[in-house]
Structures are given as C-alpha cells and as structure tokens.
Amino acid sequence: MGKSRDTALILKKIKKMNNLLLLNAVIIVVISVLTIYSATIHKTTLFYKREAFWGIIGIFVYLFFSFIDYRKYAKYYKLIYILNILILLSVYVVGVKRLGAQRWIDLGPISIQPSEIGKILVILTFSEFLVSKYRDRFIGLKSVLISFLHILPVFLLILKQPDLGTALILMMTYFVLIFIHGIDWKSIIIMVIIGIVSVPTAFFFFLKDYQKQRVLTFLNPEADLLGSGWNVTQSMIAIGSGGLYGKGFLNSTQSKLRFLPEAHTDFIGSVFLEERGFIGGIVLLGLYLILILQIVYIADTTEDKYGRLVCYGIASIFLFHLIINVGMIMGIMPVTGKPLLLMSYGGTSLLISFMMLGIVQSVKMYRD
Fold first, then answer.
1. Is residue 10 part of a domain?
2. Which stretches are transmembrane (predicted)?
C-alpha cells in the first residue's frame, strides 16, 4: 500500500513537470556540441566528445535535483552556507593556477570551479535569509547593509581568486533579489548614486593591472590590435563576416585559422555567429530568452516566497551570463571570461547549469 502511494506521488510530480524547460536546454546543448565540433575539429575531437558526455550527465543531474524538494535547502540553509564557504576556501589549499588565477580544483580526469558552485549555493541561502529575517520587505540602507553581510564572505573569496566576472554577477544577482523581495525606492536611488561614485574608485584602487587593461581595451580595442585588443577584434571580424545567413556549418575561418583564441569557450558565440549569421543569432538568443522567461513564469506562479526568490536568482544568473558574454564578443563590454551557459565548453559550468534548472523544476513540482 505504501509503495503504491509513493508511486502515485511520483507520477503526480512528473505530471507537474515543465518539459519545455529541459527540451529548451537540450536544444542549446546540441547547438553547443555542433559549434564546438566545428571550432575544434581541425585540432582534436576531444572537446566536442567531452561536451556531449557532460551534456548527457547533465540531464541526469537535472532529473536528480528536480526530485529533491527545494524547501529542504531553506531548512538547512545555514549548513549550506558553511559548506559554500568551505568549498570556496578549499581552492586556496588544493587549487591549481591557470591563466594567472587560482580558481580550479583538479580531481583527476576532471576539474571543478568552486566559484560556479558558490553562485547557486549563495542564492539558496540568501533567499531563505531574506524570507526569514525580512518576511515582507526591508526599508532603509541599514537593512540593505546587514543583508549584504550574508553574501560578503562569498563575494570576497571569489574576488580574491581573482574572478571578477563571477563576483560582479553575484553582486547583480544580489540586487535583483532584494528588489524582488521588496525595497523602498529611496534606498534604491541612494545605492545607484553610491554605485556610480564608486566606479572610478574601484578602477584605480581595487582592479589589478590586467583587469584595468581589459577595461581600456574595451574602450579602445584598436589601440593594441596585436596585443590586448586581439581577441575582441578577431571576434568582431568573425561576427561581421557571418553576415545575415552565415558562412555555413564547418565554414568558420577565424577559429580554423587560429585567429580567434578560446574559440570553444569564451568566444563560442563568435564561431556560431560566423557560421549561422544574424538569423542564427536571433534564434539562439530567442532560445535563451524563452528559457529565462520560463524560469520567471515559474517564479511568478509560485506563492512560496522562498521558491520565488530562488527562481529569480537562477534566472538572473542565466541572464547576466548572456548579457556579459554576448556584450564581450561584440566588443560592447569588457572581456571578463564569463562563459555562455549551456553553450561554452566546460563540464563544471554545464553541470551547474543543469543543476540550477533542476532546482527550478523542483519549485514547479513541489510548490503548494
């Protein structure tokens, strides 16, 4: 009798699943594998095979987290917060340096990037912090500053790696969550003014030399075409040469002639736009917007405040990654090394993306 009841409950949950959410993500991953194949086939078949493998594993990760009641994260949010800090600290003990940053932990055949995990964990904990400490809304800068103390240790640990891009996404997601939860406009205006005033200070006193160079290159990439401006310039050439309909699959030249560095990771969008053109770009952008809008719809149709905040936090991560990466490859934003989620090559990023979508699906399935 008990097994029959459990089976009926599982079937009920399955019926409540938003199947379009997974289908949307899988379509993007298929496009990713094809584009990575095109960008790297002249060198090796390893990258696209690995991406396909992690994509398949990602589906199982998605299903696993879909069937975990999301409210358990709220119940154990303090333990999750401590775990997050420990994971981020571990990179300074057992982490390895790549490209001048200590962001990765090697686990034999795979590497993980703790900051990618840290983003989603801080959403799970900060959302419950807002609900439990400020049930309706909070007013005044004092409440804002106190709430910011929750994410400050995570922010500083990520910034120290250094991973400025992830730290900025964390900050923007923080502002989205406090806005969605409810905050008075006076505090918003004051924070905007403080943010504008602090930009020059941050540039001159907190950014490292290579980070300052990225900003200067963004403002004038032509100043050093063979140096710091190379990546962005070659990316814009690739995008521009794609025209309206693109050059066709396997016909990208910037990556095959090795003009475009990191073609399968940070600049995967440039390869896709060179091959698929403006029309292909609109289709890909549409897939991302549909994905994000589905997450927002699940949030808005959820009465539980915690589930709503978690969904908005996850939607923010996907949105800001999209804005930053697309802006970067088009030369309208500084190069920060942020991947295009579900599209750029990388096992950790792909699995975390599916994990986030699984949590969103859990909100859909377990909400009252």
1. no
2. 20-40, 52-68, 80-100, 138-158, 164-181, 188-207, 277-297, 309-333, 339-360
Domain tally, the chain: 1
pLDDT digits (tens, 9 = 90+) for 242-296: 888 888 888 887 766 566 777 788 888 889 999 999 999 999 999 999 999 999 9
Alpha-carbon distance 91 to 105, whole Å? Answer: 6
Is residue 5 one of the residues assigned to a domain?
no
The pTM (predicted TM-score) of the whole model is: 0.90
Identify which of 333, 361, 188 has the alpha carbon closest to the alpha carbon of residue 269.
333
Query: What is the predicted pLDDT for the residue at 112?
Result: 82
User: Does the residue 340 lie in any domain?
Assistant: yes
CB 344 within 8 A of CB 328: no
Q: 């140096």: which residue's tokens?
A: 227
**DSSP letter assigned to residue 336:** -
Q: What is the dihedral of CA 323, 113, 39, 260, to 10 degrees?
A: 70
Range of the domain at 108: 19-366
Which residue ranges in the chain fall short of pLDDT 70?
1-9, 98-102, 108-109, 201-230, 255-259, 368
